[in-house]
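Re: weekly structure request thread

Next one in the queue (185 aa):
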Amino acid sequence: MIRNHLISLIAAACLAAPLAAAAQQAFTSKPVNLRAGPARDYPLVAQLGPGTPVQVAGCVNGYSWCDVILQDGNRGWVYARNLNYPYQGNQVPLITYGSAIGLPIIAFSIGSYWGRYYRGRPWYGQQSHWAHRPHRPRPPMVRPPPPRPKPPGVFPQRPHRPDFGNGQRPPPGQNRPGRDRPQPR
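Done, posted below.
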């Protein structure tokens, strides 16, 4: 029994060592939730403050969610728009630059992932609920369209009422001679 436990610990360490060496450091861009799977419906593992360093083990296809490792050993998934990575002198969002950075694409399997990292968690026994639950995708970030430019020469419709120069305006229908209409000659 002890021998089997020791072998499984050694095997886990051997599997984790190359992964930790291949992990790349990123930082949270704002307060974020660390989830037990790659969707916002999964249980909350931890809450991270802005600027928290994380090691990125990989991301799902499309780089929308990334599997991260915290300095205290906790592990989970963060929405990639909330992770920045130092790239060519700038902090760039992983959701956009994941492929350029060369982050690995990884698969998520709830049974093996939860079995490895979440055995003591209260929701661990509910794997079947989470495994067959349809996850709501994050709504796409929709930006409002830019305002349409006005064609040249088109102005808002308001009556033109010139100023007499002393802050008073003439009554509607009267214009100041010489300013608004040409004078007869």
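The two ends are 116 Å apart (CA to CA). Strands lie at 24-28, 32-35, 44-48, 53-59, 65-69, 75-79, 83-87, 90-93.
Next request, please.
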